[in-house]
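Field reference: sequence -> structure
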Amino acid sequence: MKINLLQTINNLDGKPLKDEDKKDFTLGQALSNILLASKTKGGMKIFLLAKKCFEEKELEVDGADLALIKNEVKTSDAYGGVLVTGQCELLLESLKEEK
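Structure field:
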């Protein structure tokens, strides 16, 4: 499965959130931050996934990696609320519909 990491994370009004450089905040940025904040064992695998999410436009994942990423998103408090993590969950859940 492929994850389009360039999808934007939006405000409730549908406008893209902006990062510190005033650029659109993307799914890749959100996932990399969530993964880097992980307290789960298996740090090297999580770190490498975070690096790929930050650097790449698209991420090819197998079922195990997708499950790992989804779990990290669901258990993350990296953003202190659900605006970002909720959208990440929705975008990741939509992947199973594209099989």
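Note: Residues 2-98 form one domain.
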